[in-house]
Each structure stands twice: as C-alpha cells, then as structure tokens.
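Model: You mentioned two targets. I'll fold them one after the other.
Researcher: Yes, keep them separate.
Model: Target one:
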Amino acid sequence: MQLTNAQRAEVLTHALPYIQEYAGKVVVVKYGGNAMVNEELKRAVMGDIVLLSLIGIRVVLVHGGGPEISEMLARVGKQTTFVDGLRVTDAETAEIVQMVLAGKINKNLVSLLGQIGGRAIGLSGLDGGMLHVRPVDERLGFVGEVTDVDPAPILDVPEKGYIPVVSTVGFDEAGQSYNVNADTAAARIAGVLQAECLISMTDICGLMRDPGNPDSLIRKISASETPGLMHDGVISGGMIPKVECCTEAIRRGVKKVFILDGRVPHAILIEILTDEGLGTMFV
C-alpha cells in the first residue's frame, strides 16, 4: 500500500514522543541467528540501525555469527560440538572464530551500514582491551566468561559520529583469544554503558508460556519473576541462557531489555517507536 504524504507525516508525528524518549541515549542491539543469514532481513535490520543513529540515538551493534562459524568449520573439516548450548572451542577453532567474527562478518556489517547511508566502525573485544575473559568450563576449551569490560573503545566511536559494530571475541591474561557468547557479551556491554535498553534479536517471537503457541507471548515481565518461570518449566532449554542474560543486564542497570523476533522486518523500529511493540520486555 502506498502512503500519501499526509499519512507519512502522521506516522512521523506519532513516532516523535518515542524519538524524544531515546534521543541521546544508548541502545545496544544484539544481532545474530537466522536474521543474520537472510540478506533481505539483514538489510532491513541495518536500515533500522542507521535510522535510529540519524535521529540521535546512540546505537551499539553487538553481533555473533554461529551459523557462519559452523559453515567455515565444516569447510575445513572440523566437527562442531556443543555443550549446554555453547560451542566447544579448541585452539584451532578459536582462530577460526576470530577470523569469521572479527573479520568476515564484522566488516560485512560495517560495509552494509555504509551502503545504506550510515557511518560505522568495526571493533572486536580484543580492540583496546575491551573484553577481558576467563574460561567458562574446561570442557568447552577457549570459551570465555566476561570478567571485565573497558567501554572506552566503544564510547569513542559514537562521539565521532560512527556506529560501533562489536564482534564478541575476548582475551585472557595471557592474550589468548576466546569465543564469547554474544548474548552474554551484549548484556555486559549494555550494563557498563548504562544503556537505555538492550534489544536481543532471536528467531522466536519472544518468551511464551506455551512454546508452541505464539498467542501465549509474555509481553512484559519483571526480572524477579524469571526464577519462578524457570522452576515451572516455562523458561527451559535454549531460552534459559538468553533469559539469564536479559536479567543480568537489568541487574547491571539497563532500564529495559527486549527479546525480539529478528525474522520480522523492522522489528527494532516497531518495538522502540510504537506502543504495541512485538516481543517480550524485561524490566
């Protein structure tokens, strides 16, 4: 449907209060999964981020890249193993993770943002000593738990008018690089930046009481309610670490956290610039 000029003006007028609420504030977007693989959706997500940046919102894009890492490992003949949803990472896999995340994916996203009219700079957790880590579990090898975040490299970039694009590779005291779960890294980065909100883009519509029924979507939840929902089995499987990251961000001072369906075009704009929203909001 083609909008008239008057309708376009009305849309912008309705968005104004939300733009005013977020203007000058930090919004951290965690991006990965299926929305990253589909080129049309990827372009829509990057368009949303450029638009938010142009209206004065300080967007920090934190990305993973699990599917592309698995594809590259398959190309070199390495089998991928997961424990509790985390990739077992030996020294060779850690090198490939760094190459794919900090190299290929990060620079492709920076390039795409530029094509759409944004200005972006790619960073990794190794740059400027951003993400300090320690091993999560010896069974996982070089998979890192974030112990400290130095926000200086991220903060410098928006001051100069660029969008920081952060790949989740960290390092330990010996300088060894580690694979870091993107949800975990985004939660810690959002906490250190005291972000207005963290948006976690995934491939489901949000937290549901019945995983098979989208109508059971929980639209708003307090972080204090999540242990009870885990006990009751409403939060289970792969949603447990994602929800734990959401509640961790809230505990660290992030005002709101959203789990959004990254398969919906312009999900970020719908969530931030409308009353209805799309996914689950943690407060």
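Model: Target two:
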Amino acid sequence: MPSSHFTAAYEGTPPWDIGRPQAEFVRLAEAGEIRGAVLDAGCGTGENALFLASRGHEAVGIDFVPAAIERARIKAHERGLAVDFRVGDALRLADLGRSFDTVVDSGLFHTFDDDERTAWAASLAAVLRPGGRYFMLCFSEREKGEGGPRRVTQAEIRATFGGSGWQVVSIDPARLNSHLGSGGRRAWLAKIERAEERASGESPRG
C-alpha cells in the first residue's frame, strides 16, 4: 500500500491499532517462545513492544510513520517502560546498527509487494542473530471478508524464506485482531529461524 495510506490512517485510529498487544504474541511470550532482545518491526503505536518490555525484554520498535512513533513514545513514558521507538524504514534495518534475538511482525509482511518481500528478507537477515526467531502474523488467503491488506499464502511465505540461511519452522492458522471485524481476521502465524553459522570448514548436514 502507498505510504500516504498509512500516514493518513494515523489522523484517526487505524484498524490495526487495537490498544493492546496481539493475542498471538501474548501467547508466544507466555510460552517462552520470545527470547532476548526484541525488535517490533512496523510497530505502529507500540503495543506489542510495550507488552514485551513489561515482561523484561529489551525492546526496540520501528515504524516509518512519525505520528505512530510519537504516540508509542508517549505510551512508554506514561507506563514507565523503556522502549527505544524509532522512525525508520523496515527495509533498511541495518541502519539500526544492532542485532536482535527475536523479531516480531504484526501485519507488516502483508503490506509488501513481491520485490519488497525479497528486500525484507535481506533486511531482516542483517539484524536477526544466528539462531534468532522471526514471528510473522499476516492476513491469510482464507480470510474472505472485504477490506484489509493483501492476502498471503503459505507458499508465498515459504518462497520468501526458502533460501539458505532460513528455516520455516511452522506456519499455523491464527487470528489477527483489528477493528475490521469482531473476533479478528484469519491469519497465518509463521515461526522462522535464522540459521546458525557453521564453523569454518564444516560441511552442511544432508
């Protein structure tokens, strides 16, 4: 979607700004799936990053809409939580100058066109540590309701992260909560891991 769409959305309350963390990320955190330093990519007004910070994670949130980041910073101040919220381009994560153990994505991947998906995988690889985890929550092609972003198939997810350096661990049916409909919309929750670096001279396992 054009960037103007997202900027205009923050003149009010965007459909994805639900005022609480996504239930799928709450479940993952409670199960111990989210580890270490966390990046919330496309963080919006920061609810997922703020929730993870409240659980003791070092958290960074990035979004390219200044109004969203301003609201996120206000929330962090009001809640007494230390989250580093930055205006930035998710396709240039290397500009952050640091790395993470976990990256969470609530509704970012499904905004990308085909070329941007390739750029996103490369951007993500620049900051996700070997063995790190990427959790993607995106609209599924099973969602037939009107409105909302481009739908994504499991095959498209696997095609984006099917190259060396990645392992698609799981893709499970999920719900993405928004203001577009009660009970959320049908989604995929993908767990993708960055491959561990091999020692010099080590042969890949076959």
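Researcher: Noted. Anything on target two?
Model: The helical segments are 3-9, 23-30, 47-54, 66-79, 114-125, 154-160.
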